[in-house]
């Protein structure tokens, strides 16, 4: 497969999404009894084995649990060989300034990438010291501009927080609070083909009008689907892959680490 720099509008584009790694400055740091750096490495090894020719890596928030530069530097180093192009967006646990410091002399925090016949737009939905998400006016304007100035491309929009209900009662209040404003923009543009997010630590694949809605497993612990209260499942960490086709369709799936043994320790601080 050609590199991103040589992909034409006739080439499919292979993306990998990693999300919600919740790393610490200390590589031995754990959350609910899980070493998050170790589980991330297991997922990276799985991607390397299954996807030898990734074009773009998307990290959709909560890269760090402690918001430390060291955690972001670790993520950058650990994932550097996966794809020639990578982009990060912050989640509610992230520190944007620390992310930018760790991303220095790179394009990791740039909000857009054109690849093949697609444009990927990345939005910041994080709110300082809050778990829920919100798109400020500048982010909504960024989205509208990105969609309007490339009508000939198919568009994938990425953010951290879920803009639709995902079926977990406790998660719904910490989604995107101004989802109506987000959809008011997206609905104006038929070139918007898919929306991709993190935050929910579980796969999600539905359709809203002509737009595909996608979320992914976390690279650490998973939230139990359809739970009323905070609950972690024993499912393995994983990632999502997406093949963006030149005609605007996409193929996608998730993959999880094999032989994963995890017994959540709720005596530790909750997520």
Please, could you describe this protein's structure?
Keywords: Hydrolase, Iron, Metal-binding. Residues 16-203 form the Calcineurin-like phosphoesterase domain. It comes from Pseudomonas lundensis. This is 3',5'-cyclic-AMP phosphodiesterase. This protein is an alpha/beta fold. It has a single domain, classed as 4-Layer Sandwich (Purple Acid Phosphatase, chain A, domain 2). The protein is 20% helix and 24% strand. The chain is built from 5 helices and 15 strands. It has helices spanning 36-50, 69-79, 96-102, 137-148, 179-186; strands at 13-18, 30-31, 34-35, 56-59, 85-88, 112-115, 118-122, 154-158, 192-197, 204-208, 211-215, 222-223, 232-233, 238-244, 250-256. Strands 6-7-8-9-11-10 form a 6-stranded mixed β-sheet, covered by helices on one side. β12 (222-223) and β13 form a beta hairpin. α2 (69-79) crosses α3 (96-102) and α4 (137-148) packs parallel to α5. The protein is globular, with a radius of gyration of 17 Å. The model has no long low-confidence stretch (mean pLDDT 95).
């Amino acid at each position: 497969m050609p590199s991103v720099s040589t992909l034409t509008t006739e080439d499919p584009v292979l993306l990998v999404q990693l999300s919600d790694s919740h790393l610490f400055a200390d590589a031995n740091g754990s959350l609910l009894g899980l070493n998050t750096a170790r589980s991330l490495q297991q997922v990276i090894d799985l991607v390397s084995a299954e996807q030898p020719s990734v074009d773009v890596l998307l990290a959709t928030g909560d890269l760090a649990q402690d918001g430390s530069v060291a955690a972001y530097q670790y993520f950058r180093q650990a994932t550097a060989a996966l794809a020639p192009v990578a982009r990060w967006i912050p989640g509610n646990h992230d520190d944007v300034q620390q992310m930018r410091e760790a991303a220095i002399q790179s394009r990791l925090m740039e909000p857009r990438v054109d690849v093949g016949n697609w444009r990927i737009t990345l939005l910041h939905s994080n709110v300082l010291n809050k778990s829920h998400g919100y798109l400020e006016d500048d982010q909504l304007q960024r989205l509208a501009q990105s969609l309007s100035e490339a009508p000939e491309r198919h568009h994938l929009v990425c953010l951290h927080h879920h803009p639709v209900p995902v079926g977990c009662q406790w998660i719904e209040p910490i989604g995107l609070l101004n989802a109506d404003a987000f959809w008011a923009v997206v609905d104006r543009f038929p070139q918007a083909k898919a929306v991709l997010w993190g935050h929910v630590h579980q796969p999600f694949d539905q359709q809203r009008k002509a737009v595909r809605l996608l979320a992914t497993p976390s690279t650490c612990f998973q939230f139990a689907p359809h739970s009323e209260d905070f609950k972690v499942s024993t499912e393995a960490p994983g990632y999502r892959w997406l093949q963006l086709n030149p005609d605007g369709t996409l193929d996608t799936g998730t993959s999880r680490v094999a032989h994963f043994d995890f017994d959540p320790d709720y005596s530790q601080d909750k997520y």
